[in-house]
Design brief:
Largest interface: A-B, 34 and 40 residues
Largest sheet of chain B: 2 strands, antiparallel
Strand content of chain B: under 5%
Radius of gyration of chain B: 19 Å
Strand content of chain A: under 5%
Shape of chain B: globular
Radius of gyration of chain A: 20 Å
Structural class of chain A: mainly alpha
Distance between the termini of chain A: 6 Å
Strand order of the largest sheet of chain B: 1-2
Number of helices of chain A: 14
Order of helices and strands of chain B: HHHHEEHHHHHH
Order of helices and strands of chain A: HHHHHHEEEHHHHEHHHH
Number of domains of chain B: 1
Structural class of chain B: mainly alpha
Number of strands of chain A: 4
Largest sheet of chain A: 2 strands, antiparallel
Strand order of the largest sheet of chain A: 1-4
Distance between the termini of chain B: 44 Å
Oligomer: heterodimer
Number of helices of chain B: 10
Helix content of chain B: over 70%
Shape of chain A: globular
Chain lengths: ~325, ~290
């Protein structure tokens, strides 16, 4: 688990929050957009890592939930004139939860490699449905989304404006990521970890491991859906790209490059991926090739990802104490 | 009546392709418990190599022979220098690696050959049609089916009548035991992996003239091949034969009977198998 915050670091919290609040004044609009996008992908990657890093479930279909969330938010906002943004988000998340339940009930009948295979197959199915069902999803044309202004009484935020969207994202996505972090410390989150380590023993202790796994699958799906909804609102547009296997590959690369062994790893990965993509796509159209090569090199030589590299470097620094004792699981 | 015959023959041709792709996939999975996500990329590469060879030599038969050989070499390299390295790290890493390889090959193909579909033309007898039980039918589809039947029989002959075949089948059952008996399992695995890659590449070459050559071809057959090994049972060659046949026919007849939902039929079959017999028709219980 994450090491407990030491009292000496308490001053960092207000400072960090102040920095987050001040960012729109510090950064130029384009940079702010990148931060917002990376934040959205952070939730997507963190939810994915709850499956992969914590439960040991390797899914190749996370984009089906991301996409369902994105399309559901777009459809709700477009079809219900002036619907409050948070209601639309709640409805989209509810729909993703339902999708997670149906898919999870079917897929979790198998484990390990067959599970990985089936998640990919179902992602392909969801994509095919999105292509065919163009009356709802817009097919190849996609959907444009114009959400209404969020009113907090004194303060009102317009998702169409860069800084306002940034604040909304940091607020909601930040809370969702915090929820994930909290979840890993709850009894339920811990039991998922233990099921990965020794399922038979957990069963013997009286846990219904199938239900725990299904719950986790649904929760992570819903969180990915929330990230997807934000992605649609952020771009004011949603296309088939959101539900494609490329989107699954994206979360896989982010999570793995960042590192699956710690909670912060996927967040690091999401920011790294977003910035490197931004940098490389200016230089060459073949940036996915570079990203893919980096991924393979990571799998071969640095299975702990970036956060694993940082940790092993930190452990080698002179004066580093109790190396390895804070290894996350 | 004749229409049904035509669609049945169409289904057979596709079943042949599916079998060539999924047989290697299922054998590799049976032996080392590695599901190779890059397997369909070998199929795609086979088609692209053949396309370039056809441009250079102008001879389809030459492409049909050389392209699978190139893939066999590539398969060996990938197994020896990449897959074997991550084997110690466990399952998840193996899957991630093959997924990463598939991603790179997909992007690499787009880089080298471009994204637009390219036609591959065959000439001579293969471009002809024949009269069969009162219907005119293109020779090429029959050729695909014939190739897969011949290779299937060859594979059966090797697997069931030779010493190597016995070793491979034993390794599919229990590779640790085979290793304990003094057989070099890693080398055997490399061989099976490479032959699987070659078969997949051969399927790609034969698919080229029929379906044209495009970067998405790997993804579309990968999903179908996955359905084949789920329905047939992972690691079962007999299951791959039967499931390829069923899915080939479902694809073919699905398109005329339910044009909007032909894909759903295949998933419904898979869901049905998962609910009734999760290990697949010919699979062993986990």
């Amino acid at each position: 688990m994450m090491p407990k915050t030491k009292p000496a670091y308490l001053w960092a919290w207000p400072l960090g929050l102040a920095l987050l609040a001040a960012l729109p004044w510090i950064l130029p609009p384009y940079q702010l957009r990148l931060v917002t996008e990376a934040t959205i992908f952070s939730l997507y990657a963190v939810s994915y890592n709850l499956l992969l890093g914590y439960a040991g479930l390797l899914s190749f279909g996370h984009a089906m939930f991301f996409g369902v969330g994105a399309f559901a938010a777009a459809v709700v906002i477009n079809s219900m004139e002036g619907v409050p943004l948070f209601l639309a988000l709640a409805m989209a998340t509810a729909l993703t939860t339902l999708a997670g339940l149906v898919v999870g009930l079917l897929l979790l009948r198998v484990k390990g490699t067959p599970f990985a295979l089936l998640t990919l197959a179902f992602n392909a199915l969801f994509y095919a449905i999105a292509v065919k069902w163009h009356t709802v999803t817009g097919g190849d044309d996609g959907l444009t989304v114009f959400p209404s202004v969020v009113n907090f009484g004194l303060l009102s935020l317009d998702p169409g404006k860069g800084p306002d969207m940034y604040y909304l994202t940091v607020l909601v996505i930040g809370l969702a990521v915090a929820f994930c972090c909290y979840f890993t410390r709850t009894a339920m989150g811990q039991s998922v970890l233990l099921i990965r380590e020794n399922e038979e023993r957990m069963r013997f202790l009286g846990y219904n491991t199938n239900v725990a796994r299904l719950m986790l699958f649904i929760i992570t799906g819903a969180l990915a859906g929330l990230a997807g909804s934000f992605y649609a609102i952020f771009n004011s547009f949603v296309s088939l790209d959101a539900i494609s296997i490329e989107m699954t590959t994206k979360v896989l690369l982010m999570t793995f490059i960042g590192g699956t062994a710690s909670f912060a790893g996927p967040i690091v990965g999401a920011f790294f991926y977003t910035y490197v993509q931004d940098f490389l796509s200016d230089l060459t159209d073949n940036w996915p090739l570079i990203m893919g090569t980096l991924f393979i090199l990571m799998v071969l030589f640095a299975p702990g990802g970036l956060s694993g590299l940082v940790k092993s470097l930190a452990a080698r620094l002179p004066g580093a104490k109790d190396k390895g004792s804070d290894r996350d699981d | 009546m004749s229409e049904i015959a035509v669609f049945f023959l169409h289904g057979l041709a596709y079943a042949g392709l599916l079998f060539l792709v999924s047989s290697g996939l299922t054998l590799v999975f049976g032996m080392m418990n590695v599901l190779n996500f890059a397997h369909a990329s070998f199929y795609m590469l086979g088609a692209y190599f053949a396309l370039s060879l056809l441009h250079i030599t102008g001879n389809f038969w030459l492409a049909l022979i050389i392209s699978p050989l190139l893939l066999m070499a590539l398969g060996m390299v990938i197994e020896r220098f990449l897959l074997r390295k991550v084997h110690v790290l466990g399952h998840v890493h193996e899957l991630l690696l093959t997924f990463g390889i598939a991603y790179i090959l997909h992007e690499g193909v787009k880089w080298i050959w471009g994204t637009s579909p390219q036609a591959m033309a065959v000439t001579g007898i293969l471009a002809d049609t024949v009269s069969l039980m009162g219907i005119t039918y293109p020779v090429y589809r029959l050729f695909i089916f014939a190739v897969s039947v011949i290779l299937g029989l060859l594979m059966a002959l090797v697997l069931f009548k030779t010493r190597i075949g016995i070793t491979v089948r034993a390794a599919v059952d229990d590779s640790a035991m085979v290793g304990a008996l003094g057989i070099n399992v890693p080398r055997l695995f490399m061989g099976v992996f490479a032959v699987g890659a070659a078969l997949s590449g051969l399927a790609g070459v034969t698919a080229g003239p029929l379906l044209s050559v495009f970067p998405g071809m790997a993804e579309s057959i990968l999903i179908d091949a996955f359905v084949v090994i789920v329905v047939g049972g992972m690691g079962s060659l007999g299951g791959a034969v039967l499931a390829s046949f069923i899915i080939g026919q479902l694809q073919s007849f699905g398109v005329i009977l339910f044009p909007e939902f032909s894909l759903a039929l295949i998933y419904m079959l898979m869901a049905l198998v998962l609910v009734v017999k999760p290990e697949g028709l010919f699979g062993e219980k986990q």
